[in-house]
Automatic annotation (TrEMBL), chain B:
Organism: Flavobacterium rivuli WB 3.3-2 = DSM 21788
Transmembrane segment boundaries: none
InterPro entries: ATPase_AAA_core, Bact_Antivir_Def_Nuclease, P-loop_NTPase, RecF-like
GO molecular function: ATP binding; ATP hydrolysis activity
PANTHER family documented for this protein: ATP/GTP PHOSPHATASE (PTHR43581), ATP_GTP PHOSPHATASE (PTHR43581:SF4)
Protein name in the entry: ATPase AAA-type core domain-containing protein
Length: 179, 360
């Protein structure tokens, strides 16, 4: 299956490609390259996306965004879901949405055993969805050894099942892929 | 109309260039590709293969030319080009195919210094940066020139087309026009075409021969001159070359070399270096205009350079990549051309390069 990943590139799309590859053997392709988070909302993004979807044959799209807030912040969630709803209209097949709570780095805190192993830490588990600014927190607990541009490498060292168990935003995608 | 251009190059066995076979368009060819994929190796190899003093010798490389002017083919025949080259033994398998294509095979023969008729294929190569020292452009020349009965003098060796043009223009005029004893004449005439191009396509408002230029033509046998160098007008102020910014220096160098170019082929590496986007846009307009006379083979990392192309010129893009340690050069596949055209309908060609899979 050709799975198109749409989001901040390369960090987010390549990280999620690596994460899903731990469990599901599909072809994961970043649909738009070299676009930052702030460049996912403008008219140019929409135009680029239309062209790519018209010229590519994907079986499934996964849209990835950072919420930059907690899941109970309804206004922020609504804005992101509106973005997803508007953009998935350009694709006639199925689309899924991975809305990271605060940021992609919250995923690391959902597999604390692997995180400790990667950075030689002794952290205790806490709910990854309750961490305010997980990127900043990850940089702090690793004494700045965590580098955002290596997120995709680190994420491939996580235990997929542990992430799935503790990271609610991934569940819909997993349910879809495992069928 | 240009007289000749490269239609195809088959180059083998030099650094990452193991076996490259690529065709070229008559006007602009733009090679893009990630760092380290062999773009510079290719340009160096191509330039060296066509130059008099070859450092790279190879028995299996071919470069094909085509003339867009039948008179040029006659010219080649009339000067016994084929015979001379064959006799020289350097290009062993040179031949005309269908009376239109000249086939040159690199060999391991001697250098071509004595074959002036091959000058047409020696390309103008503009590499990264600019040469370390440029007489007249950057450094003043002080010299003595001996007058000879034929009316020509030997101008000091120069390392740029512009300096050569000034030399030829000036000293030819000196002998044929200027009465004996005259100390000066309007040498700036030789700069007219350059000044036209600079004012149209660059931030340089003009160049002139330095105000301290001095000449003594009173001697029967020799001409003495000193302080022959150029000054550059930027924002109304006359500056020396060394006072220009790095970007302006290279811009001037590119424009002057192309203005006075007497070759058919221009190899240009990364025209964008050090240039403001607006300046680069103007430079590419200049190059596009010049491509009516010369064939350009350009390497670039600049999306703006790619945007020079129209939707019917997408075959002018060449992608450089590395496969199994070897440089590969390829034109766009039909589906890539279709996608590029889709991009160009709504966006810029550069968006395809930046945000999609043009190079993949």
């Amino acid at each position: 299956m050709r799975v198109g990943l749409i989001g901040e590139n390369p960090n987010d799309t390549e990280s999620i490609a690596n994460l899903l590859s731990l469990k599901y053997n599909h072809q994961y392709i970043s649909v738009l390259k070299r676009r930052k988070g702030g460049q996912l909302d403008n008219a140019k993004f929409t135009a680029l996306l239309e062209i790519e979807l018209r010229n590519n044959n994907f079986d499934l799209l996964i849209f990835i965004r950072d919420l930059d807030g907690f899941e109970n912040e309804a206004d922020k969630v609504r804005v992101r879901e509106k973005w997803f709803a508007a953009n998935k209209l350009h694709f006639k097949k199925d689309s899924l949405f991975l809305l990271n709570i605060h940021a992609l780095e919250s995923i690391f805190f959902s597999d604390i055993v692997s995180l400790n192993k990667i950075f030689n830490l002794k952290l205790n588990f806490s709910n990854p969805l309750s961490i305010n600014n997980p990127k900043k927190e990850l940089i702090r607990v690793t004494s700045e050894r965590y580098k955002e541009n290596r997120a995709a490498d680190y994420i491939s060292k996580l235990d997929y099942n542990a992430v799935l168990k503790n990271y609610k935003p991934l569940k819909d995608i997993d349910n879809y892929l495992k069928v | 109309m240009k007289k000749a251009y490269i239609t195809r190059a088959i180059l083998k066995d030099y650094l990452t260039i193991k076996n490259v076979d690529i065709t070229f368009n008559e006007d602009i060819n733009i090679i893009i590709g990630k760092n380290g994929t062999g773009k510079t190796n290719f340009i160096n190899y191509l330039a060296d293969s066509l130059s008099e003093n070859q450092a790279i010798k190879n028995n299996h490389s071919y470069i094909y030319f085509k003339s867009s002017n039948n008179n040029f083919l006659k010219e080649i025949k009339n000067i016994k080009f084929l015979k001379e080259v064959k006799n020289n033994g350097f290009f062993k398998n040179l031949s005309l195919k269908d009376n239109k294509v000249v086939n040159l095979k690199n060999g391991d023969g001697e250098n071509l210094n004595e074959i002036s008729t091959l000058d047409f294929i020696i390309p103008l190569k503009i590499s990264h940066g600019i040469p370390e020292s440029l007489k007249i452009i950057q450094e003043p020349i002080n010299d003595v020139i001996r007058k000879i009965p034929e009316g020509y003098t030997v101008f000091p060796d120069t390392d740029s087309s512009l300096a050569f043009a000034i030399g030829v223009h000036y000293f030819t005029k000196l002998h044929s026009i200027i009465p004996k004893g005259t100390k000066s004449y309007n040498i700036n005439e030789s700069l007219n075409s350059l000044n036209n191009n600079l004012t149209k396509y660059s931030n340089i408002e003009g160049v002139r021969i330095g105000q301290n230029f001095g000449l003594d033509n009173s001697d029967k046998n020799e001409i003495y001159f000193n302080n022959l160098y150029l000054e550059y007008n930027i924002n109304g102020v006359w500056l020396s070359f060394n006072q220009l910014s790095d970007g302006t220096k290279r811009l001037f160098y590119i424009i002057s070399e192309i203005t006075y170019n007497d070759r058919f082929i221009v190899l240009l590496e990364e025209p964008e270096l050090g240039l403001h986007p607006h300046q680069l846009y103007d430079l590419m307009r200049f190059i596009k205009e010049a491509s009516e006379k010369f064939q350009f083979i350009i390497t670039t990392h600049s999306p703006m350079v790619l945007n020079t192309l129209n939707s019917d010129e997408l075959d002018n893009i060449i992608i450089s990549s590395i496969e199994n340690g070897a440089t590969q050069l390829k034109h766009l596949a039909p589906e890539q051309i279709a996608k590029a055209q889709a991009y160009m309908e709504k966006m810029d060609l550069s968006d395809y390069w930046i945000h999609s899979d043009l190079e993949d």
